[in-house]
Amino acid sequence: MIKRLLPLAVFFALVGLLLFGIEWNKHHEMSEVPSPLIGKPAPEFTLPLLYDSAKSLSRKELLGAPYLLNVFGSWCPTCQDEHPILTNQIKPLGIKLVGLDWKDEPDDAKRWIAQFGNPYDVLITDRDGRAGIDFGVYMAPETFLIDAQGIVRYKRIGMFTPENIRDELLPKIAKLQQSAK
Amino acid sequence: MLPELGQFALILALLLAAVQCTLPLLGAWKNSAALIAVARPAVAGQFVFVVLAFGVLTYAFVTQDFSVAYVAQNSNLALPWYYRFSAVWGAHEGSLMLWILILNIWTLAVAALSRRLPDVLIARVLGVLGFIAFGFLLFTLLTSNPFARHLPALADGNDLNPILQDPGLIMHPPMLYTGYVGFSVAFAFAIAALLGGELDAAVVRWARPWTNVAWAFLTFGITLGSWWAYYVLGWGGWWFWDPVENASFMPWLVGTALIHSQAVTEKRGSFRAWTILLSIFAFSLSLLGTFLVRSGVLTSVHAFASDPKRGLFILAFLTVVVGGSLTLYALRAPKVAGGKPFHLLSRETLLLINNLLFACAAAMVLLGTLYPLIGDALGVGRISVGPPYFGFMFALLMLPVVLLIPFGPFFRWAAGDWRATLRALLPALALGLIAAVLAKILAPALPLRGLAGVAASLWVGIGIALYAVKRWREAAPGRRYTPEMLGMIAAHFGVALFLAGVLITEAASVESDLRFTPGETKTIGGLQFQFRGVARAQGPNYVADEGTLEVRSGSMLITTLHPQKRAYAGGGQVQSKSDIDPGLFRDLYVALGESLDEKTGAWSIRVYVKPFVRWIWLGGLMMMLGGFVAAADRRFRALPERAAEPLSATPATTKPIEARV
User: Does B432 share its domain with B491?
Assistant: First the structure.
């Protein structure tokens, strides 16, 4: 009898382990630590402005105040869904919003902005996606919260929703403002 | 409207599954013919509604109904029509639907083809299968509804993961699922036997072809997956020991043990408890594989993973199914060893060794797969053991198997004659060793692994061929080879091809990552590769950088290869598409790396020359073929003389016994 119970005992040990695995995953929220960049300096970049490709904007020039870097493209339908949220909910927050037009034709992006409106404070282009690689972007939209010292504080993969602006983004921004005082 | 109809059909299927898993089991217990008779109609009804639901989902993909959230997430307007069908199972919800559909096809086949078996037994078998269907339908409806709406409808979808937009991936999941869901039949028979209190030979004989067919599909699915990984992922590897692959490999290993163990139980009556246990394990590992892939406990990088609710549900279901059946096993497993006695040197012993080694290999893979989790649990951090562990351990466990394979057919049941067998196998041994020596002389650079591959492959291949010759000589014309025996020969011959493929490829491949400027020629593996530059190419839903390489041997042009790097419109995802010049004795494989210098047009390009790599999949296909051929043996479908034949009775007409495995 004992010998026959052995497979069952091993199986229950296995179930215990798997249960632990689920619990572990719950406490190590996957959506919050997908980027090794969090807590680290944002990658260096110097990218041409969308509306004046002779000029460029670099990471260094953005130091001194926190900002959101929103990766989007005119080819990306989810970015289109996110667009009104950026306009109506992110822009009123008053934090600087930098748009990174990713893997896109600048003319398409300009048409897109002209059609839907411009929630961004400044727009830069990453036509060949090189900066996107440095940031570990693998889909659009993605958004990075970068503090005054140029450290990445938060990353959102996929579009913002009112819920995660309230539960995730706002607390992070509040924390940055607190530590600035 | 239609998607709601699909969901409604799923709910009806769930209710019918509930009927199928309660009334017939109750009937079998209370011996009520009326309740037992519910089983088959319930199966048919459930099948109709599952097909309807699956059809509705497929229709939503084909007509691009982006008001269905699942369709919008996994398809878009630019997706070619043929990928819209396979997009159905491109992500979590749809692959569950496929799982359920395939389970229903298996169940329907059992219900339709089992008229000759006792009704009580079939009621139990269909009841168990109904319970599994119930669990998965409930899981789908509660946590993973594929018909959930996204209103207002999106103008366009997100696109199917580009890695899945490939002909190999149209077939891979259905074959794989057909395989491991097919083990549910052997499982259901094992549970029915435990409930009924006996496992008789007629039942095992009837169950054997089902296991063989399931195993053959699984073999095919895994082979396809390996081939797909080889030409799509761009690393030229054919097996990675990642958790998802392991999830399908563990049931395969136990399934391999099971088909051998079933043969012994059917023919000799031995290993009964073992056969039942392996039947439970094979299917449990299929469920565990589903859990590992779906719950995200290991593969948090997978897109569909990381929903704790889903993980908990499958774990609970797993606990009920596996825990329940192992409890049943502990209570009801055959008490006496039973079966005919056998000598230490006999085919039974060889098959027992086979069983133990394959079961150990499965346990080894399971341990390695769960290792990161064990690391977490013990507080030492998440560590992966990776390919070195798997590769070494697997080779170690399979070495005796390879050495013993040719002995199997030669050894008789009960008592084998090892002297006569060794004499008969001497040519295989000699040829294997001579070929290894020759290979060393002809290709001095070939490492030991390659030589071992040559020797092992010939040992197994010629050993099996010698057996085929022996049968040809000794048996009367017309009854030389039964399909069962032919299947055995083919599958073991597949092992020989596979061994040659794996060991020679691993030992003798040339792999190089090189920088090419347009016009430049480099010599790799004795061939000249000339880079002609990169141009833009337009696909149906992507744009690609397409490189051109001409391959020459001396002045003769062998082939021109066009590896691509694709950027898909939908999600902006980039996917490398290698180009391969396939050959029986070597593959030329090139993959486009990164653009290194825009001014000169230089690119990094990965070039592989892989000898014998095709033999890996040829071996897999041969094993699959063996499984199907063996399952076609009419003997399995012959009418048992008596409905509940006692275990020891072997039909008198099937001599000579030693000829079968």
Answer: yes
